[in-house]
Amino acid sequence: MMRMVAIGATAVALLGISIPFVWQTDALSDPTATMAAEVSPAASHEVVADAAADSGACMADAKPANFDFTFKDLDGKNVPLSTYKGKVVLLNFWATWCGPCKAEIPGFVELQEEYGDRLAIVGFSVDDTAEKARAFATEYKINYPILLGEGREELQEAYGPIWGIPATFLISKDGKVCRKHLGIAPKAVFDKEIKALM
Q1: Which residues are within 8 A (CB) of 155 and not within 5 positions of it... i.e. 6 or more apart?
Q2: pTM, whole model, 2 decimals?
Q3: Can you give the residue ranges of every domain in the chain?
């Protein structure tokens, strides 16, 4: 059921964000583009009209992140989310069948390489088996932890509602959900927001 809802919502989200994303990608690749064009979020992203939003820091109404969950990783080991407390965390909800997720993941791999242990990127596979997720992680050279959520929706409920994927949450060192992206976003947007939280 979750997969069908996610597929439908992802299709609708793709239609809604395709034009702004294409425009934003063009603007980012154009060296003469204005600074505003370089950092404008895609239409599906949460936008907050305050000084914090402009600076890339936490949203004014940032809520505490819920770390009270434990999930299995690709090796079958239990990993508490609380392991990542005290770091900047990029929590990404994704699945192997999700086209926009596949487009975003190479950027996450690059960000993890660039920031090293100062950043904890955590991929949360919403409904894949360990075998599927492992094969995908190998193919895409994923260099950050993948946690398995097959049959468990409590994390989506804690951070949601999440009507489609990808959905990505940036959590500050002091444990606040500072940014949320419901839909695909370019690497440059994540990079700017991560820098502001370092």
Answers
A1: 69, 71, 93, 124, 149
A2: 0.72
A3: 2-197
pLDDT digit string, tens, across residues 109-159: 999 999 999 999 999 998 899 999 999 999 999 999 999 988 777 776 778
Tokens of 135: 């094969």
The reply to whether 101 belongs to the active site is yes
* Active-site annotation holder among 101, 133, 142, 146: 101
DSSP 126: S
Query: Which residues, other chains included, contact 121 with Cβ-Cβ below 8 Å and sequence gap of 6+?
Result: 89, 90, 92, 108, 111, 112, 144, 145
Q: Which helix (H) or strand (E) holds 2?
A: helix 2-29
Annotated catalytic residue within 98, 133, 137, 170: 98
Catalytic-residue membership of 98:
yes
How many C-beta atoms surround the C-beta of residue 4 within 10 A? Answer: 8
- Residue 72 has a CB neighbour count (10 Å cut-off) of 16
- Architecture per CATH, domain 2-197, reads as 3-Layer(aba) Sandwich (3.40)
